[in-house]
C-alpha cells in the first residue's frame, strides 16, 4: 500500500511539473518568436504568436495554428536538413493546408524531427502536447515503484551469483520464462557451479536441454565453461571488455550479468527493452537491424540510476508484462504520462520491425530402422540444423516441388528412394518397409518440416565411421539427447512408449 501511495504521489508531482512547464514554455516561445519572426517565411506579429500559443495550451490547435507552427519549426531546422527532408517538409505543410492529411500525421512528423535532431527547443516546446520532458531520474523513479510492486518471483532473481544469472539469461533467450523455470532448477541441481559444468559431456548437456531448442546455446555454454575454468579460475570477468569476448556472450547478456551481479552501469537491451524505449521516445528505427540495438543502448545509458540492476530488470519485466508487442496495457504502465508513442496514440505502430525472410517449407521422410531390439540413430553435424543432436535418418525435399510419389506412384517411389539413400549413405539393406500414418509438423526459425514416419528392418547392425551413427536398444532410446522434432514424431507411433 505504501508503494502504491508513493506511485500516486509521484504521478501528481509530474502532473504539477507538467502544468508549470506549459506556462513557462508559453512565455519562452513568445520571446523566441518575437526575436525571429521577421526572418520567417510568413510574417506573423508577436501578438498573434502569443495568442496562438495561449490558445494551444488551453484547447486544441486550429488548422491555421498548426500550419504556422510547422513553418516556424521548419525555419529552425532547414539549415541542417537534407534535400529529401526539405521536400517532405514543404509537402507536409501544403498537404495539411489543403486538408489532405490529418493532424496526427503532423504530430508524428514533428516528434520524429525533434528526436532526430535532438532538439531541446522543440522537445521542450510541447507544441502538440506530445512530449512531456522530464529529467532522466524520473524514468528510473517511476520504473522502480512499478517494479517493486509487480515483479515476478523468479528463482534467478533471488541471487547475484554470475553463474546462476548467466544460466537463466541463456535459457531465456527465445524461450518463454514459464518454460525455463523447471529447466533452470534441474540444470543447477545437476551442475551447481562452473567447474561441474566444465566436466559434463555434450550428450549429457544436450539431454538436459531437450525441449528448449536452439541447441547452439548449450554448446556455447560448454565452451565458455571450459574457458572460464582454464583462463579465469572459474570466475566471470567483471569488465565489459573481457565479458564481450567470451563465446555466447553478446552485448545484452554481458550487460545483464554486469549490471545484476556487479552493479555496473551497463545497458542490457533485449527485444523487450527495445520495444519499451522505442515507444517511450517514439523511435521509428527498425529494431530488426543490429545498428538499432546499439542506438537504443545509447538512449538507455543516460537513464541508468545507481540501482542499475533493478532498472535493467524492470525494463525487461515491463516489456514482458505490460508493454507487449500488441495491445500494450498503457493504463497500467509507469511511463504512461511520459511515453511519446502513447501520447500520439501510435503505440501499436511502434516499434518498427521489418519482416523476417519467408520460411522454407520441406517434407521430411524419417526412417525408423529396426534390427532385433535395436534402432538406428544418427548424430547431426554440430554446425547443421539440429546442432549435434541425435535423431533418425531422414530425407527432405521442398514442398513447393512436384513430388511424384504424392501424385502418381504412391509410396512405391518413396520406398525406392529410401532404400537407395540407406544403401548409399549407411551401406544398409532393408526389408519390411511400412509407411505409417504418424505425422508431425515442426517449426524452426527459418523453415518448417512436415514430417512423416516410415518403419523398416535390417538383418544386421552395420557400422560405419561417417556419418556418426549408433544402434541402441529401444529401451535405451530415451537416454540420448534426441531432437524435439524426431522425439515428437516417434511419440506418435507405437515406439513412443520408449520415450518419456
Name the beta content range: 5-15%
**Integer tally of domains:** 3
- Low-confidence blocks of residues: 18-61, 118-133, 401-409
CATH class of the largest domain equals Mainly Alpha
Distance between the termini: 47 Å
Fraction of residues in helix: 40-55%
Number of helices: 21
List keywords for this structure.
3 domains, Nucleoside Triphosphate Pyrophosphohydrolase, globular, 7 strands, seven-stranded mixed sheet, alpha+beta, Endonuclease III, domain 1, single chain, 500 residues
Q: What's the short version?
A:
With 500 residues, the protein is an alpha+beta fold. Helices cover 50% and strands 11% of the residues. Strands 1, 2, 3, 4, 5, 6 and 7 form a 7-stranded mixed β-sheet that branches.
Question: Can you describe this structure?
Answer:
With 500 residues, this protein is of the alpha+beta class. The chain has three domains: 124 residues, no CATH class; 207 residues, Hypothetical protein, domain 2 (Endonuclease III, domain 1), CATH 1.10.340; 139 residues, Nucleoside Triphosphate Pyrophosphohydrolase. 50% of the residues lie in helices and 11% in strands. Strands 1, 2, 3, 4, 5, 6 and 7 form a seven-stranded mixed beta sheet that branches. Strand 5 and strand 6 form a beta hairpin. Helix 3 packs parallel to helix 5. The radius of gyration is 30 Å and the shape is globular. The relative contact order is 0.08. About 14% of the residues have low confidence.
